[in-house]
Amino acid sequence: MNAITIDANFVKKDLYKSKAVAKLSHYAEGELFYDVELSTGTYRFPISTVETDYIEPHADDEGGDEREITILSEDLGATPFFVEMKGSDLNRWIAMAIKAEKFMKISL
User: Fold this and answer.
1) Which of 33, 73, 84, 101 lies in disulfide reach of 3, CB 3.0 to 4.6 Å?
2) 12-66 residue pLDDT tens
3) What's the sign of the alpha-carbon dihedral 89, 76, 81, 98?
4) What is the arithmetic mean of pLDDT over 73-85?
5) CA 11, 51, 54 angle in degrees (round to 5)?
6) How buried is residue 94: exposed, middle or buried, by Cβ count under 10 Å (0-12/13-18/19+)?
7) In DSSP terms, which residues pair with 40 in a beta bridge?
8) Domain ranges, ordered by start, for the chain
9) What is the signed CA dihedral for 10, 33, 42, 88, rounded to 10 degrees?
């Protein structure tokens, strides 16, 4: 699957016009993957649920290496995520996926 060039405004308009439902495909490595059908095909995009942060070691830690911690993504806020939901409710994350070139066309 390759990322395609698609305009976020086109996707937003298409979702509001079609009232398409986004369906949860799977969860892997800290990301929810949703599929959504647009007039140009079916697309998959991730929503990150975790963030990795590096913290300095405590003064008492031996070795002095930074430690990696994983925390829930602040971007999620209080948003509920369901197996099926209106695609337009996910426009924020769709736009982020498009910008990051992670909005993938999976079928015609």
Assistant:
1) 101
2) 999 999 999 999 999 999 899 999 999 999 999 999 998 877 676 666 656 667 7
3) positive
4) 86
5) 145
6) buried
7) none
8) 8-107
9) -40
